[in-house]
Amino acid sequence: MTIEINYFGMIAEVTGCNSERMSVSEGAISDLKGMLVGKYPALKNKDFRMAQNQELVSEDTLLTGQEIALLPPFAGG
Amino acid sequence: MTIEINYFGMIAEVTGCNSERMSVSEGAISDLKGMLVGKYPALKNKDFRMAQNQELVSEDTLLTGQEIALLPPFAGG
Amino acid sequence: MNYKNVFIKGAISSEFIGNSIAKHQSKTNIGAHNIFLGQVRADKIEGKVVAAIEYSAYEEMANKNFHEIREATFEKFNLTCMHIYHSLGLVKTGEICLFVFVSSPRRKEVFKALEYVVEAIKADVPVFGKELFEDESHQWKVNS
Amino acid sequence: MNYKNVFIKGAISSEFIGNSIAKHQSKTNIGAHNIFLGQVRADKIEGKVVAAIEYSAYEEMANKNFHEIREATFEKFNLTCMHIYHSLGLVKTGEICLFVFVSSPRRKEVFKALEYVVEAIKADVPVFGKELFEDESHQWKVNS
Fold this sequence. Notes:
The complex is a heterotetramer, with two copies of chain A and two copies of chain C.
Chain A: E1 2-7, H1 9-15, E2 19-23, H2 29-39, E3 49-52, E4 55-57, E5 68-71
Parallel strand pairs in A: 1-5
Antiparallel strand pairs in A: 1-2, 3-4, 3-5
Chain C: E1 7-9, H1 14-22, E2 32-39, E3 44-45, E4 48-57, H2 59-76, E5 81-92, E6 96-104, H3 107-124, E7 127-133, E8 138-140
Parallel strand pairs in C: 1-5
Antiparallel strand pairs in C: 2-6, 3-4, 4-5, 4-7, 5-6, 7-8
Helix pairs in contact in C: 2-3
């Protein structure tokens, strides 16, 4: 399946883009995370959480094909 | 001695004036209070505190000749 | 001794509050402001509706008490600045009668400080409020 | 689903805040307003001074989160109304980036509600802040 992945803040600095589409096989968030760290090794040292369909998810959540986001620490306010 | 006595809010409604000067002999706040209730019997049913020289005082505080105030419940804000 | 006068004649306008906020933009060590506004409610009491409150005060003592509250608050909390304004005279329902404004580098301080100041004003300052009803009768307000 | 947009382009002006206060004068069941303002600090970090913060957000998720915070707050506290505005883009030091406004018949409610809302925004909403220094270098802000 093809998933849209969005990057924000310092994570978008590492990836060099705000959004991309990626073909992934079925699996969990952890699998996608592994792929992304493979593509962007500097992610390994970054603090971020992942959201799927605009909800924070844990590593063992299954991929649904919905929008993914990599979210660095929040700084609102 | 002559003391200036100030009335506020619902207390001034009872006394019909905002301020008056009274001759009193030496004594405590309770003595003055007794005089005032004698002059204005409706004070007996009113809730008020007394200040001398702009400080709240208890009934057994001695009169100093400084300004007295009769303060009904506060309603600031 | 003369203390700073906290009282304003009549209602406190939203423009006054906006201007007060604007004046703090040059203080770039501030990270958090917290503002309390007291507004006159159209309370219904035994079928009659409050139309306005007429505020009076033992002004000299009240300004001394406001000063003491100010000193105690700066002592307890890490604030950059604090402003208090209270109405005297007529304030209609929907209008603002109390404006308390505290500022600090950090937000945790302003929350604690603002509540402390407002509760102290309610409890300790000789301000009196005559609630005027639409039929021109009145009753005296008491803080709860 | 589309949620209300909480974001404002650039700094939040003191006139905007003043107008927002004025709009509440027709709500005569309100007795207490509490306002939190976040202001950008000129923090000194390793000898360099912050000149501005550039805010970005995962906007759709953030607006959903703001909506959820709003619902939870109305559930927990007796509020008449609540407004939240957050800046996106460049906000210079001394300017306002967050405006939270809660109103209630009674003051006890607004103190608790405002702190709850501000803490929830800091913790739960995907907003990101790039602290720009005077020498044009930058670092990413992290809420404490």
